Amino acid sequence: MFELLRAPVEPIAHDAEIRAWLRLEVRDRQLAVLRTTFRPWLITYDLTGAGLVWRAGPSWRLTLEEVTAGVRRIVECRNPVDLMADLTDQMAIIQRLAGPRR
């Protein structure tokens, strides 16, 4: 792996074009990070009349125990950073319910 990291990198000829592409694809890259980090959740974003809304819902049917403990059916936020924070809290609840692993 270290050999790959140390391998020479070809110079980028069109820095401005790449920066423009990165700006256009930010939401999709953020979505990919969220989906990879929180695999059990179905995550989307939508443009509404009030602006952009990021949503996540569990991909499984919640148990009564999970709902009682505070796991939400839908988590909505205005930005992906807040969604990541809320999903981290949700995962902490789920892990507490699962108890210590042996």
Would you write up a description of this structure?
The structure is a single chain. The protein is of the alpha+beta class and 102 residues long. It is built from five helices and three strands, in the order αααββαβα. It has helices at residues 2-6, 15-24, 26-37, 64-69, 80-98, and strands spanning 41-48, 51-58, 75-77. It has a three-stranded antiparallel beta sheet with strand order 1-2-3, with helices on one face. Strand 1 (41-48) and strand 2 form a beta hairpin. The radius of gyration is 19 Å and the shape is elongated. The two termini are 31 Å apart.
Topology overview:
Layout: H1 2-6, H2 15-24, H3 26-37, E1 41-48, E2 51-58, H4 64-69, E3 75-77, H5 80-98
Antiparallel strand pairs: 1-2, 2-3
**So how many helices?**
5
Structural class from helices and strands? alpha+beta
> Going across the major beta sheet, what is the strand order?
1-2-3
What is the beta-strand fraction?
A: 15-25%
Number of strands: 3
Query: Overall mean pLDDT score?
Result: 85
- How does the overall form come out from the CA principal axes? elongated
How far apart lie the N and C ends?
Answer: 31 Å
Helix content: 40-55%
What's the story with the biggest beta sheet? 3 strands, antiparallel
Radius of gyration: 19 Å
Low-confidence stretches: none
| Topology pattern, helix = H, strand = E | HHHEEHEH
